[in-house]
Amino acid sequence: MSELKEDKLHITCRDSLITGKAFIPRRYTLTHSDSTGDLFLTIDCEYDDEQISGLYTRFMRDEVLAEWIENEERYELHIYVHVSGGFVFGWAKLRYKIFQHHMPLVLKAIRRGDKELFDLFPYLDQSQIYIHFLSNRNKYNKIEEFGILKDYK
User: Fold this and answer.
1) Cβ contacts of residue 112 below 8 Å, gap of 6+?
2) In what order do the strands lie in the sheet with 142-148?
3) Rounded Cα distance, 98 and 96, in Å
């Protein structure tokens, strides 16, 4: 697992995001540059469709989408990644392993990028993380638990 380099993390927090007592809906759109290694994180009430609408991104489908979900009286972070299906480039097994390998970096980017939220609501560090691997192959179309957020501080 590679370490998060703060100078490579570029954060956009949209004006439509309301801070205060309520933080749901809150969604994250994370993309990266293969050539520079920069990470681009948008925090908003909705996913950043503009960020993921480019031809390269639609072809590679290596974006990461995440959202907070309230489940009874606890909060969970759900993350969605495309392993196969549609116009996804690459074999499902390889993409699955790549996403698993890089998920700690993704979680650190979200945790660091939305630091103000965790400062306001420190109990969110105890939230369970669920990764939704989206695939047209049953073997890789699954949801996996990935620990809690404090593991990625």
Assistant:
1) 4, 6, 9
2) 9-13, 39-44, 27-32, 64-71, 74-82, 128-134, 142-148
3) 5
Separation between Cα atoms, residue 10 and residue 146, nearest integer Å: 24
Residue 52: pLDDT band (50, 70, 90) is: low
Take residue 108 and report the two structure tokens written for it.
């650190």
Which of 6-10, 58-62, 105-109 is predicted most confidently? 105-109
Stated as kind and residue range, the H or E segment containing 10 is: strand 9-13
Residue type, 81: V
Query: Which fold would CATH assign to domain 6-152?
Result: Severin (3.40.20)
Q: Are strands 74-82 and 128-134 parallel, antiparallel or unpaired?
A: parallel
Task: State the pLDDT at residue 54.
Answer: 58
- Tell me the mean pLDDT in the region 73-97: 81
Q: Domain segments of the chain: what residues?
A: 6-152
